[in-house]
Amino acid sequence: MSRLTAIGTVLPGWSDGKRRVVGLDEDAVTLGVAAARVVLEKAGTVPVDRVVFVSHDLPLLEGGNAAPLLAGIGLDESVVVVEQVGGAPAVLDAVAGALPGTLVIAADLLPAGAGAVLVGETGPELSVEGRVVRSMPTQSRAADGIVREYDDPRLLWEQGVRRSIEQLELTERPTVVAGLAAKQARQVCSGTPPELPVIGGAAAVFALAAIADPGGALVLAVEQANITAARVDGVPTVASVAPEVRPLPRTRTTPGPDIAISLAAYDRAFEPKLRWEAGSCDACGTLALPPRLRCLECGSEEGWSLVPLPRTGEVYTGVTVHVPVPGLPTPYSLVIVQLDDVDVRALVKVTGVEAGAMQIGDRGTLVFRRISTRTGIPDYGYAFLPEADVEAAQHREEASA
Amino acid sequence: MRRVAVVGAGMTPFREHFGLGIKDLVPMAVSEMAAHVDKGLDRSDIEAAWFGELSTTDGFPSGILADTCGLLDIPVTRVENACATGNDAVRNATYAVGSGAVDVALVVGADKVRESSTRTTFWEWAGMTRDSAWDYPLGLIAPANFALHVARYLHESPATREHMAMVAVKNHRHALPNPKAQLRFEITIEQVLAAPTVVEPFGLLDCTPQSDGAAALLLVAEDVVDRYTDRPVWVRGVGLGLDRVMHQHKRDMTSFPPTVKAARAAYAMAGIGPSDIDVAEVHDCFSGVEMISYEDLGFAERFGAHKLLEAGETSIGGRLPVNPSGGLKAKGHPPGATGVAQCVELFEQLRGEAANQVDNARMGLAHNVGGPTAVSAVTVLGIGKD
Ligand SMILES: [Zn+2]
Prior knowledge:
Oligomer: heterodimer
CATH superfamily of the largest domain in chain B: Thiolase/Chalcone synthase
Strand content of chain A: 25-35%
CATH topology of the largest domain in chain B: Peroxisomal Thiolase, Chain A, domain 1
CATH architecture of the largest domain in chain A: 3-Layer(aba) Sandwich
Largest sheet of chain B: 9 strands, mixed
Largest sheet of chain A: 10 strands, mixed
Bound molecules: zinc ion
Number of strands of chain B: 11
Radius of gyration of chain B: 19 Å
Structural class of chain B: alpha/beta
Shape of chain A: globular
Distance between the termini of chain B: 13 Å
Radius of gyration of chain A: 22 Å
Structural class of chain A: alpha+beta
Number of helices of chain B: 12
Number of domains of chain A: 2
CATH class of the largest domain in chain A: Alpha Beta
Order of helices and strands of chain B: EHEHEHEHHHHEEEEHEHHHHEE
CATH class of the largest domain in chain B: Alpha Beta
Number of domains of chain B: 2
Number of helices of chain A: 8
């Protein structure tokens, strides 16, 4: 049994024509960070000492997603991070088994979306009603990353999903199902279940977020023939970001050498770059981005401390690169942003809009993104999301318990 | 400090010299310079050399100069100062001669940009001038560095893309008679505006081409100038200026403070002001950069550069012709060679021997800005000693 203190969900604003997809600067970590920030903003000051990150699309299998995840969310380096490969049942199990102070994050790439559940001392209770683990790998992906389809949806439906549901011996039909297409979900549920925008691990969070009956709900999380059923005894507190969908802009990719990376420089920049912090001169308080030994203002070399930077600002100047650039999709826009209330400017890429869809004077926010991939290493930092897009992102559907 | 004269100047054509390596271009430029010293040059007179090269090909730059030019018994120092490299090499040699350390100094600038495929060199070149963790992964390519400045300049000043196009059109027209220039064809404002966009607000025709080439100057002390020529050109002023390296730390991006500082130093040393300049070779790697530089060099009031273009004042026949050689835009831009080649052009202009001669030119100015926009070098040459 665990309590759902708050839930956050995030959808990217891009579509490939059929479904939501991530932008070129997003991955499971950036989506997970976005969802986590949404739920933590909603929950206020609730301590988090453990993060469970569930996805089928972990950017790195070795080398670590945990540090960028914690930095992007703004959690301390001492927080435990469990990275888990899994779908909707794994997420529901993680939530059910979580101790208070646990943030369960799930991110899907196709269709794309992410959700985060903050398990705490308050909120409706979630308890597992039943669980079936069976093997019906009609879709499989090994360490080589290649997805293989065993093309027999009826086998999966009849011998996989339906048989597992029978084995659960539920006393009532579920009200919402994660991990199934809408048509199949309708066959399983009582009434008309809410349609969920994703079908992977994040679907379990969207399912919990969709609970509207004050009497609670029976939630089913399905992945192939694996199913977890859980009961929630109330309506959770939810915050969601769901920008209007636009077609993913066409870009040109030019073959060429990888952009080299210096891991020494990456390491030195990591904290301020991924936590969006400046060096504040210990002598005079002047802020420097990036932090530097010698103060920009007073020349002190006595030391500096990291302080959080504002995440809003205005474009001082900006350009759009159209010429083919090896290793980077073009076109893309770069801006120098004057941050609000501090004497700091940042040079960043523009995100969330088509290249060129910004001009000097535009306002916006700084958001966590994958700036580039350098010799296979995701290089995270911040990008500028113009305000027009922020407004679209604020079509937030909120519900309170 | 002793007075320092330029008594010889030469350069290779600026081209894509696929058939020539740096070991060919450097001695070719030096030999052309030597052949144009009025009273001849005995190479054993050369006491020291400064070699401006931004990116080395074929190995150790100073050694290549000494080896390929038959100068194995003198000290050679490589200078690298981004796009200000060439004029900084001139500056260093000027101090050596002026101080009395040497009487005869060789200055060479060269770069072999088209030595490997564009894609292969792309990130290597970008890596030289970007912060590795913060700026490099953003794709802050060379035109973008300058475009960030020019975009803000266009926002604050009355200048438009049409004015930028006027720079490109002018410099292409100027390059027509110059046999050393890389792009010897005229273009129209319409063509500039319609060209494919590289980095907004720069179209393809706003941008310098990629070039290979080398240039050489012979600098001598006033004590020995008569051995070489009766018509020397004097180094009247040199200056170098710097700024914060990251764009994020530049408060006003409508100006290049390094240029202001370098020009102030060079004018002060020469005892002149901008109104004394008759001809100038100004950094125009991208068309809008020439406009900003008019203001930084004192040729135009702040945000008044467009007026000079509208009035044709910086064209041949105007009050202050700028880039009669064609400039970086049309003559070409092998970075290490560029500043030295600007002085080659001024040497010819001030002696009345230029391919695209400016009437009665008595004082000339050469200017570069780079790194990407954190360093500038300015050299003032004149036919009068004082
Ligand atoms: Zn200070």
